[in-house]
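Q: Convert this sequence to structure tokens.
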Amino acid sequence: MSKIVKTLTIAGSDSSGGAGIQADLKTFEEYGTYGFSALTTIVTMDPDNGWHHNVYPVDAAIVAEQLKTVFAGGPVDAMKTGMLGSVEIVQVAEKAIKDSLQTNVVIDPVMVCKGEDEVLNPESANAIRDLLLPLATVATPNLFEAGVLSGLGKLTTLEEMKEAARLIHKLGTKNVVVKGGKALGGDLAIDVFFDGSEFTVLETAKIEPAYNHGAGCTFAAAITGGLANGLTVHEAVAKAKDFVSAAIRSGYAFNQYVGPVFHGGYRLEK
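A:
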């Protein structure tokens, strides 16, 4: 390789391997990049209690030490954030991005774990909105997160997704992808991309069975990989849609509770 392309994820651990920092690093590898990581939270899922999620944030000072290590080599070609766990960790991420003059920043404003429907930490969600969205090249909220960030609440239609994207863009991010995925009615998995002036609707046929655990993290990581490799934001988002669709098609049933995407699906289909 004539040039090492570097990517970074600041995110939580998913021991089941489908989402979080594990999904990000697998995706970075599929994009041919060298992945760095800073672990923010450890998430466990309890098979004896209906797959209930427990979230254990890492001390913010330790997150800062990890990022000091990463940025000792200068800025990376692109980076993303995922689950951050506390206001202090959000502040650490903000400082690292600013101090390193980092560009190509993807903010995945993770507020819940799949299967959960309440904001894990409302103060952290507010900090992501206020501190990180203004630094974002792309923000990638799902329907729940877009409803919270925009103040619109539950989103159920394409037009509501577009309005949420417009309102989130006003918070400072340069581009927004509202991930509808399989959540909207009909036969299509729909995402909406907004660059501040135009909307692009990204559609693929819904996949059944939908082994989609980790799809959101994987999508944001794929955008990161695309930006690191020199794609435009629009190109990176379009390729990420194809990448995550292939990952869902190649997914499998991990147990009775969850089925993760398979991050090598795009490569295998090629």
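The chain has a mean pLDDT of 94.
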